C-alpha cells in the first residue's frame, strides 16, 4: 500500500493496518530498524532520542503503537520522505 494511503488509514484510527505497511510508513518518516527482538521491531531515527516499537499481531500493527508513531511525527514535525 502507498505510504500516503497508509497514513490516511492510520489518521482515521483504523485498527486494520498491515504490519508491513506500518513499517514502510515509519521508514517513510525516516525511521530505520535498529534491531529486532522477537516480534518487536525497534526503529530509530538519528535526530530523535526516542525509539519506536512496532509489533505485529495477526499480521496487523498494534493501534497504540501507530498512535505513538503519529505522536512522534507531530512532536518533531516530520514529513514523509517523498514530500521533500
Descriptors:
4-stranded antiparallel beta sheet, alpha+beta, 84 residues, globular, 4 strands
Which residue ranges are poorly predicted, with pLDDT under 50 across at least 5 consecutive positions? none
Helix content: 25-40%
- Which CATH architecture? 2-Layer Sandwich
The total domain count is: 1
* CATH class categorisation: Alpha Beta
In brief:
With 84 residues, the protein is an alpha+beta fold. Helix content is 38%, strand content 29%.
Explain this structure.
The chain has 84 residues and is of the alpha+beta class. The protein has one domain: 2-Layer Sandwich (Metal Transport, Frataxin, Chain A). Helices cover 38% and strands 29% of the residues. Strands 1-2-3-4 form a four-stranded antiparallel beta sheet. A hairpin with a 2-residue loop joins strand 1 and strand 2. Helix 1 packs across helix 2. The chain is globular. The two termini are 20 Å apart.
Present the secondary structure layout:
Blueprint: H1 3-11, H2 19-28, E1 32-37, E2 40-45, E3 48-57, E4 60-61, H3 63-75
Helix pairs in contact: 1-2
Amino acid at each position: 500500500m502507498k505510504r500516503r494511503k497508509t497514513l490516511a488509514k492510520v489518521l482515521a484510527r483504523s485498527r486494520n493496518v498491515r504490519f508491513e505497511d506500518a513499517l514502510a510508513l515509519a521508514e517513510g518518516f525516516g525511521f530505520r530498524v535498529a534491531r529486532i527482538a522477537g516480534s518487536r521491531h525497534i526503529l530509530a531515527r538519528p535526530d530523535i532520542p526516542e525509539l519506536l516499537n512496532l509489533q505485529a499481531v495477526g499480521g496487523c500493527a498494534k493501534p497504540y503503537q501507530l498512535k505513538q508513531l503519529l505522536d512522534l511525527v507531530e512532536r518533531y514535525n516530520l514529513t514523509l520522505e517523498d514530500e521533500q
